[in-house]
Design brief:
This protein is α/β, with parallel strands linked by helices. It has nine helices and 13 strands.
Length: 283
């Protein structure tokens, strides 16, 4: 089975390349940035993927790549169009070359109630549109798995997320400020579980959307305390100075479909995943 991987210089693409248990001899790692370690270079948005992969007889695409904003509030219609164009290039390649599978890294984005598709920004809308591209692939006899990932973290993740800000403060023994009371929750998913879900998607028959999440949510206060414990930090926590507009938010996800169809079950608790990630950051 020959696999093409987009976004191989991104966080999850790099993690996958470093830690997947799959044989990489028949993998082609694609990037639109500066290629390293034998990566294949593509034009922006993978518009020339057909040329780059000519003669490679690809069976599967794992699509990590996306135009990602610094925050949901920074997204605009142009970003939406770019991600759609990228998906269209990959869609055409997939259909024209009769690929067997397409694994798409999707997300929950700004949605609070995914069942209602309560989209609040153009980036999230682009990810959901990508899932519809996958549905069109299935109409053309391509198996697809849209893996909705919640708050991914792990080695190679360098974005300035709340998790990374807390870690940086703790390592420096600086005060960690929590918005509101710290009750707001998030479902943090370690990259190792995400890669495992991809490997399982290649092993099993797939179709549609799968929530790839951890077993439990974590409040911002719990997160700060856990990071302080792992880093053996003397940081103190203060809360209540700034209002949290999502004060009592608690996402309601489950991995029932992924467990039933892919045999997926998260292995990493947040403490276990954070311990690995912080060790990597401190290397």
């Amino acid at each position: 089975m020959k696999i093409a991987i987009t976004g191989s210089n991104g966080f999850l693409g790099q993690y996958f390349k470093s830690f997947t248990k799959l044989n990489q001899n028949d993998m082609f790692f694609l990037t639109t940035s500066k290629p390293i370690d034998g990566q294949l270079h593509c034009k922006p948005l993978y518009e020339d993927i057909e040329r780059v992969l000519t003669g490679k007889e690809i069976d599967v695409i794992i699509h990590f790549a996306a135009v990602i904003p610094t925050s949901f509030s920074d997204t605009d219609y142009e970003l939406f169009l770019k991600n759609n164009k990228m998906m269209n290039y990959l869609y055409e390649f997939t259909i024209n070359n009769k690929l067997k599978k397409f694994i798409y890294l999707s997300g929950f984005g700004s949605m609070h109630n995914p069942k209602l598709l309560d989209i609040k920004d153009f980036y999230t809308m682009s990810k959901i549109t990508g899932e519809h591209f996958c549905a069109m692939m299935e109409a053309n006899n391509v198996q697809t798995a849209s893996l909705r990932i919640s708050a991914p973290y792990g080695e190679y993740a360098m974005a300035r997320s709340v998790l990374n800000i807390f870690i940086e403060k703790a390592i420096k023994n600086e005060t960690i400020e929590i918005f509101g009371s710290g009750k707001r929750e998030q479902n943090f998913t370690y990259a190792g579980d995400i890669v495992k879900s991809i490997e399982l998607s290649l092993e099993h028959t797939v179709s549609g959307i799968y929530d790839i999440v951890s077993k439990r949510n974590t409040s911002m206060l719990e997160l700060a305390k856990m990071i302080i414990k792992i880093t053996n930090s003397s940081s103190r926590i203060i809360s209540g100075k700034s209002i949290d507009p999502q004060e009592n938010y608690s996402p309601k996800y489950n991995y029932i479909k992924a467990e039933k169809e892919l045999c997926y079950e998260p292995v990493y608790t947040l403490e276990k995943g954070l311990t690995r990630y912080i060790k990597w950051l401190s290397r």
